[in-house]
UniProtKB/TrEMBL annotation:
Compartments (UniProt record): Cytoplasm
Function field: Specifically methylates the N7 position of guanine in position 527 of 16S rRNA.
Amino acids binding S-adenosyl-L-methionine: 88, 93, 139-140, 154
GO biological process, alphabetically ordered: methylation
Name of encoding gene: rsmG
UniProtKB keywords: Cytoplasm, Methyltransferase, rRNA processing, S-adenosyl-L-methionine, Transferase
Family: Belongs to the methyltransferase superfamily. RNA methyltransferase RsmG family.
Catalysis performed (reactions): guanosine(527) in 16S rRNA + S-adenosyl-L-methionine = N(7)-methylguanosine(527) in 16S rRNA + S-adenosyl-L-homocysteine
PANTHER family for the chain: S-ADENOSYL-L-METHIONINE-DEPENDENT METHYLTRANSFERASES SUPERFAMILY PROTEIN
InterPro entries: rRNA_ssu_MeTfrase_G, SAM-dependent_MTases_sf
UniProt main location, coarse: cytoplasm
Keyword Secreted in record: no
UniProt name for this protein: Ribosomal RNA small subunit methyltransferase G
Cleaved signal peptide residues: none
């Protein structure tokens, strides 16, 4: 599984990843399956161009640790055996790292691009992620209304557009957990009627100086 990461490189990446996991309050043992996923991504990326980030060390920061920076916000859902849909997930980000870190979480990876969906199916199989499935579909065409406790999206679209495309997937009381850069005040103000921002939380991503926020959006309760 790790042929795309020669032993010396894998050792370097492990040494880089472990402090990041610790700073996020995660078990350093997660480094092994996370690097198994990264090895698959590096190998497939040579042919299928799944991500513009080519350097494995950059992938540790910009893909693995960036995805895991929100793990605390799915902890309660995972503890209850709840479900998360990762919309427009691309190569499985943040859904696959979150599924590795929170194995009780039931994750659906929603992606319309066939090459990316094939990669994710292979990654799910190789990594033995029993509670992860791939839905090869456009977000708005996924006919699973009210199925999910939460939906998430990373660098996908504006908050209003995410709600428009994927809001139907949420259970009553469900939450959109949107990964954003700077605090998106304009997007929050433009949320459609019936939706409201429940909070905006700054995220610290080890190895990245860039600003990150997790915006939580839900339906109005009145």
């Amino acid at each position: 599984m790790n042929d795309a990461l020669p032993p010396a490189l894998r050792t370097q990446l492990h040494a880089h990843l472990v402090p990041g996991l610790r700073s996020l309050g995660l078990d350093e043992a997660l480094a092994t399956p996370l690097l198994d996923y990264l090895a698959l991504l590096v190998r497939w990326n040579r042919t299928y161009n799944l991500t513009a980030v080519r350097d494995p060390r950059e992938m540790v920061d910009k893909h693995l640790l960036d995805s895991l920076a929100m793990h605390a916000y799915v902890a309660d859902i995972a503890a209850a055996g709840g479900s998360l849909a990762d919309l427009g997930t691309g190569a499985g980000l943040p859904g696959i790292p979150l599924a590795i870190a929170r194995p009780q979480l039931r994750v659906t990876l929603v992606e319309s691009n066939g090459k990316k969906a094939r990669f994710m199916r292979e990654a799910v199989r190789k990594l033995g992620l029993a509670d992860v499935r791939v839905a090869e579909s456009r977000i708005e065409a996924l006919d699973e209304p009210g199925r999910f406790d939460a939906i998430t999206a990373r660098a996908l679209a504006t908050l209003p557009l995410i709600v428009e495309l994927g809001g139907h997937l949420l259970k009553p009381g469900g939450r959109l957990l949107a990964m954003k850069g700077v605090h998106p005040a304009d997007e929050i103000a433009a949320l459609p009627h019936g939706w409201t921002a429940l909070g905006s939380h700054p995220l610290q991503v080890p190895g990245l100086a860039a600003e990150r926020h997790l915006v939580v959006v839900g339906r109005d309760t009145d």
